[in-house]
Amino acid sequence: MALYTPIKGIFFDAGWTLFYPTTEHWLMPHKCAEYIDPHVFSAIPKDRKDMAFANAMKYLDDNHLIVTEEEELEQFKVFYSMLSFDLPELNLTERKIEDIARSKVYDMDNYCFYDDTASTLKALQSRYKLGIISDTWPSIKRILEYGGIYSFFEAKTFSSYLGTFKPDKLMYEHALKQMNLPPEQTIFIDDGVENLAGAQKCGIQPVLITAKPNSENSDRYPSIKKLSELLEILPN
């Protein structure tokens, strides 16, 4: 599938596009491995674990409008407390819960940037306006600075500042307003087809990235396996 010209702006998702969780789970930072016995965790029935995470995630989703890392820390204290309540086998004390929440917000070892992220953004910066549209929390600024790429983006749309998530059109409208370009002159790279569908409804050209393990291509959208492949499919 071809991209339509002219393209003047590029929006990126963050997770599984620019970087990934070193623990393979966004909400299970390294401190979890220190405090949670993997044998105990594995022995808990899957339906109970799924229900516990669903309940805790609902709390996060229902209270997503936050702008500071301090607010984020307090939210994740509640999140892990809810998991502990529903899964008492984890034996998480208040101190352990706070340590895990603090690790989630402040420990940059929980994230790893893809090898081609910085070089690709640097190559694109001179030719396009760059932006980011991410379902995330206030610590995203710290993460992007840690990866040395925060300054590449002139348009930044972070879900916690709007209190909503992709594919809500408010996310894309907020991003387009910052970039000050017609939507048809922009593209959006994301690993979720539902997020790409939301962008497409707003007139943004979608590109699927399949860097996440076990991802599959879609016949609905142009796709790339890694970020640097974007340089090959962009019109000259």
UniProtKB/TrEMBL annotation:
Pfam families in UniProt: Hydrolase (PF00702)
Organism: Enterocloster bolteae
UniProt keyword terms in alphabetical order: Hydrolase
Gene3D superfamilies for this protein: HAD superfamily/HAD-like
GO molecular function, one term: hydrolase activity
Name this polypeptide is given: Alpha-D-glucose-1-phosphate phosphatase YihX
Gene: yihX
InterPro entries recorded: HAD-like_sf, HAD-SF_hydro_IA, HAD_sf
EC code(s) of this entry: 3.1.3.-
